[in-house]
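Morning F.,

Quick status update on the modeling queue. The single chain you submitted on Monday has been processed. Sequence for confirmation:
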Amino acid sequence: MENVLELLSGSLGNKMVSQLSSEVGIGDEQKTEVAMDSVMKTMLAAIGKNAQSPQGMQALDNAIRNDHDGSIFEDIAGNLLNRDAKMAQGNERMLNGAGILRNVFGSKENNVFNSLSKSTGVEKNQLMSLAVKLAPFVLGALGKARNNQSSGGGLGNILSGVLGSMQSNNSGQSSFLNSILDQDGDGSITDDVAGIGMKVFGNFFRK
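Structure tokens below.
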């Protein structure tokens, strides 16, 4: 089975970090790495939370089955840096990052990015621009992992493995994920994201 975290870090590292840093206006590769790390892991944590319900899992499965089979990785630079042109060529649903973010975060989207901005030191509009570009790759990585799965279990097993890996690799990240998954059941991930230090992120591209 394809390792989702390794696929994302391996595909979007190095040259892509530099180009994204310039394109979204961050202008600092280290801060861009932190921003990419925080956005993608926050997305994966939120996807995992949403998929805890049968309805959420079905919606995720449908989205991946219909639009996110992993083919986005066949042209990483084009789909990441020339998204508008690619969307005009007929890949609109696959590359609709803004729509993906709305589905993942719902009404909490604005507050989540406000909180991530405070945590990473990156401006909110820059984070959101970055997230729109990255979101299709997060779902594409899940789709590719599902397609390459050698045993049963489906998306549930894949998500469990991803979240378990993020928790085990970093104790600070474990606390973060426990918070963002909202185990206290208060229905809000906004306060949970706020105050997470920059030190928690930034390990995505550096093993």
